[in-house]
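Whether sequence alone determines local backbone shape is best considered at the level of individual chains. When preparing material for the folding task, we compiled for one chain both its residues and its backbone structure tokens. No coordinates are needed to read the tokens, only the vocabulary itself. For completeness, the protein is quoted in full, as a sequence line and a line of structure tokens:
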Amino acid sequence: MNKVLKNSWALFLGMGGIMMAYGFQSSLLGVRAVQEEFTLTATGFLMSGYFIGYFIGAATIPNIISRVGHIRVFAAFASLSSLVILIHAILISPFIWFLLRVLTGISMVCIYTVAESWLNDRSSNKNRGSVLSIYMVTLYGSVGIGMFLLNFSTPKNFEPFILISVITSIALIPILLTKKKPPNFKKIEAMTLKNLYKSSPFGAISSFFYGTIQSALFTLLAVYATSMNFTILEISIVTFLLAISGAIAQFPIGKFSDLYDRRKILIFSTFGAAIFAIIAIQVSQQMYMPGDLATSKFWFYVFFILFSFCSLPMFSLILAHTNDYIPKEKFVAAGAGLQFLFGLGAMSGPFLCSIFMNIIGPNGFFIFLFFFHSVIGVFGIYRMKVRPTVDNPDSQFVAMPQTITPAGIELNPTTEHIEEPYSEKVKEILERKGVKYKKNDN
């Protein structure tokens, strides 16, 4: 663990700052959109821009990195991300913000890809699990802290936008000044969607719908809370609880999925999230009843935490479930395919959720979450009836953040070769003695 931190502290520190700025930005734009009196449909439309950009970037960034190199690409797109947030404060328009969100999505997927490629290069078979764990906690924890920065100044002012840009720019310093050489970028081969669906229909379909859920949850939660007249501090608390619950819940639910039928755990999780979404609606309505009939927001926080505990580990469960039905050598390719489907679903999530909220009211947010979680659960029950559960000894649950890229999925220790890679000194000694070693150990 100490070796991991020693070799990668600059990356973790830099990514922590970038994710702090990202968490702050997500909440800030949602609250500001409501204060600017954007329609819910317009807000959902502009928030969808991030995931469209993420999807475009995921398809194009690997080629750009291969041609230009990690450091130049990282510096260019991180600088673009720092610049774009400032333009939000100058040009107040849903369409302009949509275009800016597209640019932010492209920039962020570039940042993730470069950082995760670097972590892969610096880790070995013995510490990949530790690297992934630290990376995941860094991401979720930093996003949660960033959401509290919403209390720094009113969203109507320029200061919050400037602060996000400053944090992003400062976060670049440790990464760009690192002495370590950048890795040789390896393009990830993805399974075709047809082969992925044949291998695991439930994994493919649930990944698509879960992308729809996650994109709406993280982008419109602040919009929902603002519409329900939460104070800035209360908005910070509820968005913080979402991020932190996601990190904490991964491990206990993952342990259950390794001990028991993974599909059942996945179905229980999605139906649990659906149930707690409905309860959150009931509690939120009671908060605004007259006199002594009104309840404290404490109970809303409790049931929202329970919802997050059930919902946020689901991408890792979906990935592990899909790996149950494929050979080990296809784990990374299947993960890349699931990310593709997740991205397709994510592009429509905020816009569809905003339609629910526009028709039903603010609680359309939780109706949307209830509906799509239920769709995943119903399809899972159907698949259990037509296909038996299998036991794949190579597959296990590994906690993954929703922002993970195919390069990051390689950090999953179950996708690595058993042999430990040779050090450069050992290679030189072996070569002098004429001893051959496997190329895939390099």
